[in-house]
Amino acid sequence: MDITVAIDAMGGDHGPHVTVPAALAYLKRDAEVNIVLVGLAEVIEAELRSLKVSVTSRLRIHHASEVVTMDDPPALSLRNKKDSSMRVAINLVKTGEANACVSAGNTGALMAISRFVLKMLPGIERPAIAGMMPTLNGHTHVLDLGANVDCTANHLLQFAVMGAMLVSAVEHKEAPTVGLLNIGEEDIKGNEVVKQTAELLRQSHLNFHGNVEGNDIYKGTTDVVVCDGFVGNVALKASEGLVQMLATFLRQEFKRNILTHLAGLIAYPVLSAFKKRLDHRRYNGASLLGLRGVVVKSHGSADSFAFQFAIERAVEEVRNGVLRRINEQMAMLNEEKA
Amino acid sequence: MDITVAIDAMGGDHGPHVTVPAALAYLKRDAEVNIVLVGLAEVIEAELRSLKVSVTSRLRIHHASEVVTMDDPPALSLRNKKDSSMRVAINLVKTGEANACVSAGNTGALMAISRFVLKMLPGIERPAIAGMMPTLNGHTHVLDLGANVDCTANHLLQFAVMGAMLVSAVEHKEAPTVGLLNIGEEDIKGNEVVKQTAELLRQSHLNFHGNVEGNDIYKGTTDVVVCDGFVGNVALKASEGLVQMLATFLRQEFKRNILTHLAGLIAYPVLSAFKKRLDHRRYNGASLLGLRGVVVKSHGSADSFAFQFAIERAVEEVRNGVLRRINEQMAMLNEEKA
């Protein structure tokens, strides 16, 4: 199965310096994939020249004259930058010239443009951002990570369907377990929306584990953790902040004096292995779910190594029919309701 | 200033085995403090005997015939256990025989009983749980950590007042900075409640920093971080889960083989210093704010070292008039509105 990925080559903090080498590296890894680099042709060509590579049948350039910046308000990017690399890459998915789009650009703009151009899948009211987080026993998928701040129980139910189908597609799990993020495991805990969602999930055909708490994310209690975008985003950002604080404290302790410096040198291979195990670059690539097309958001600061994981995520979603799976499940859900 | 603290001696996973030694140790540290140990007199006396200590003018026992367990539903604890150590300790605050109550018991029951017995301060609609979290530059105070799952903008404004006054009392800061937990720093971000709260905070006399994100908690961007109890609880529990996962990974890496074991031995003093710096026992003691009395909740699993921090927190709140400060600020707030 040939898969074509449209890459917003200008997106992210480093633009073509990252997206172009990542595309080249990915093409070597997966012979079934073709890549379209979308953006300012001159700049992309210059990057290819500097890497001593030229376009091939599997790698082509699609010119787009504008660039969405990290500071552009989503609404303005949508209205005023119709020839942006981001928008043109999404258009290629719309027209069927590409099977998926990957961008490290402005999340709000990517969400707004994707939604406007691709539209939502039947029965899905809101798109959600799903990301992977490391756990004691592997990893889990959390959604929504920030697309929706006010959610109804039906929205959360749809997120659960999308998250479960994402995991079934990219991890080949038949019936992924779904946990509902709450502040206690008991049914009576939580706010009204969460209680209603639990009821809907219990009635659904999904493999609903029940309520989970914040610590269950990292315990890996379930394959999928469902929450609204406000809570998901706070949990994600708080985790990032905590890891940064711990890393700083650890560095400071090892730099305290000559003995601790020496201990640090001796422990270096162990600390490196520890760090590698948590390497957030391996978790790069958040799925924008609910759209009539596969769109993956890379972290803006991703390097080439990290960006390849975002491409891989997009390829796996296409290869394993995540959209078809979501459609099938939504149809089942509607039958259950009827 | 003499301060009397009523301790629910039966509360927590370890009951008098922790609360009694902690009380004794605290009395040695602070000559202005008296402690009333509330609970089953026989059990407390046995604990004192085993420690070869007897009651004094500064340490007395107040018998209470019942105990609230960790599994007791809050409503039943309130209705059926009128002579529980928890309730009697709170009653002592109500009658003025004690200035504060400290309990490591069931949080829900402590909240329900405190609210029923002590009532709320004028103008405060909901009690909130405020806890201290470590940051890059010290620590910050986050509230609410789980008492309220559905909050209005006015509730969050009241939390901000209470949090700021807590910090002004226990850390002697004149105008503590207040951050509103959100999913972006821009004013337009967030849900409706948060946007309204930001507006109220901007109009208030508080030192409002603006929106903060999850990572700002650990950066220590503000002295106080305000959020609803659902978000606060998820952030807290996710952080606990993350730290446990990281600690497990680090242990696993140091136990991989004989060389890594050796590196671990050499790095041990550094890793210990690191661990000590993060010692959650130093952060033990969450304030139940908004009540007409000082109530501090210790973690259920606290040891004697940790429990002393909860006692200290209660003493400092009384000593520095946290209730008076909240009352004054609420009066100012009402004037501003009028």
From TrEMBL, chains A, B:
InterPro entries: FA_synthesis, Phospholipid_synth_PlsX-like. GO terms for cellular component: cytoplasm. Pathway: Lipid metabolism; phospholipid metabolism. Its EC number is 2.3.1.274. Keywords: Cytoplasm, Lipid biosynthesis, Lipid metabolism, Phospholipid biosynthesis, Phospholipid metabolism, Transferase. One of its GO terms (biological process) is phospholipid biosynthetic process. Pfam families: FA_synthesis. One of its GO terms (molecular function) is phosphate:acyl-[acyl carrier protein] acyltransferase activity. It is found in: Cytoplasm. It catalyses: a fatty acyl-[ACP] + phosphate = an acyl phosphate + holo-[ACP]. Transmembrane segments: none annotated. Homodimer. Probably interacts with PlsY. Belongs to the PlsX family. Catalyzes the reversible formation of acyl-phosphate (acyl-PO(4)) from acyl-[acyl-carrier-protein] (acyl-ACP). This enzyme utilizes acyl-ACP as fatty acyl donor, but not acyl-CoA. This is Phosphate acyltransferase. The lineage of its organism: Bacteria, Pseudomonadati, Pseudomonadota, Betaproteobacteria, Nitrosomonadales.
